[in-house]
Amino acid sequence: MILGSIVVKTDLPNHLYSGKVRDTYFINDEYIMMVSTDRISAFDVVMNEAVPGKGEILNLMSKFWLEKTKHIIPNHFVCSVDDLKNREDIDMNLFENHIDRDIKKRSMIVKKAKRLDIECIVRGYIAGSAWSEYKNNNTINGKHINKKLSPAEKFDHPIFTPSTKAETGHDVPLSEKDGKNLVGHEMYKFLEKKSIEIYNFAHDLSKEKGMILVDTKFEFGILDDELY
User: Alpha-carbon distance 190 to 175, whole Å?
Assistant: First the structure.
């Protein structure tokens, strides 16, 4: 794998939206293209520096996990742009003169879905902002914790600590009550169940490779009345 190139910004036809790391483009009413750039984002800040090849690796990692977890819940992944052969339903002619190898390796085609404005965070260990809150208030996401915990200690069971999905600035932690008010009781419980299922699967697979998945987050959307 050659990781010498840097893609900080893309400028293709039919631009829809640019987030902190990914740029999104309209293909048709069913599909969009997501390009993972080499931008770095941390603590709600996009850094001036970029990492060569980061977007390519991020794209491969996203593809890996989306394919590995689709038995738990369907997802929006269709294919990598590199794998578009024999897809007559996806017309990429508009992009033909704009997508070079560097863009292809960083891009995937996904289904369009209506986003749920909730970040589904699952924690298997107490670390990061959860540790800070616990240390200061003896709570996690506003919920009192009776058990004495040490930094990076593993929870007896993974916990669901959702937050808002903010367009700008910091995401705000959601209590269970606030989360249910935001998306509804049944949807909240389903998101909690599926998020923990995906986390457990990913944690166990990572453990087999000698890694610890401390925590992670998921985003979900609705397509044809089905959760993705």
Answer: 16
